[in-house]
Amino acid sequence: MVRKLNINYTKFEDRHYWILQPKTGATDKVVFYVHGGAYVQNMISFQWFMVGAIISRTNATFIIPDYDLAPRWTYTKLFSFIKNLYLHVLEKNAPEKVYLLGDSAGSGFILSFAMSLRDMKLPLPSKIFMVSPWVDLSMTNQDCYKNDKVDTMTSISGLIQAAKLFAGDIDLKDPRISPLYGNLHNLPNISMYDGTHDVLNPDVRLLRDRFQKENIPLNYYEFPHMFHCFPAVPFLREAKVANQNIADAILE
């Protein structure tokens, strides 16, 4: 897949971002992807697989911020960098051609980010795709512990520590970092993907229930027995289904 892409690592402010664009047949679609890793880990090979899987199905261009990690960067610094980079991308791309994608921490972040864009009356993206989102950094939902031993990709103890490092002086239930508690109205079309064995699935379901209770449209896809961020695992049939679904929605 790499041989089929033009890849640029471009400086922006005091960090960089990747631009991944097909060498031939590139569409006018732009996916702004915020990777997960509990705000304390860089991208890993599985996440690059998911990016490649979606590019191969859409010929979209990917913008991937290479943001710094907690505790060096807490929410305030990350938000500023992502906002400025997003607006930079919009200087050359219409918002209706731009899509937000995130997994895990990045997935929760893009939902909160969209809420902030709305509140600041800044242009919103066309659609939002959330993979196994981390939507409540307080980790106070005791139901999450039921999956702590079966989810092979993450653990509650690690998330609790990472949340404190990222939040800084912000309350862990502040909607800026925990979108479960935010205003869900007047946002773009949202698609959310999760597995029943994800340690975060109970919170994801609470978010789903809020959408339903408040009569807000949501495309929700739950996969039995799947763990945290399963769409990033290349050999899984369920990953192929989820990535194809994301691609189809981008191409609509």
Care to give the gist of this entry?
The chain is 34% helix and 20% strand. By secondary structure, it is α/β, with parallel strands linked by helices. Strands 1-2-4-3-5-6-7-8 form an 8-stranded mixed beta sheet, sandwiched between helices.
Task: Explain the layout of strands and helices.
Blueprint: E1 5-12, E2 15-22, E3 30-34, H1 45-58, E4 61-66, H2 75-90, E5 98-103, H3 105-119, E6 127-131, H4 156-167, E7 189-195, H5 201-213, E8 219-223, H6 237-251
Helix pairs in contact: 1-6
Protein name: Alpha/beta hydrolase fold-3 domain-containing protein
Domain Alpha/beta hydrolase fold-3: 31-230
GO molecular function, one term: hydrolase activity
List keywords for this structure.
single chain; 252 residues; Rossmann fold; eight-stranded mixed sheet; 6 helices; 34% helix; globular; AB_hydrolase_3
3D architecture notes:
This protein has a single domain, classed as 3-Layer(aba) Sandwich (Rossmann fold), CATH 3.40.50.1820. Helix content is 34%, strand content 20%. It is built from six helices and eight strands. The chain has an eight-stranded mixed β-sheet with strand order 1-2-4-3-5-6-7-8, sandwiched between helices. Helix 1 links the parallel strand 3 and strand 4. Helix 1 crosses helix 6. The longest helix is centred in the N-terminal third of the chain and has 16 residues. The mean pLDDT is 97.
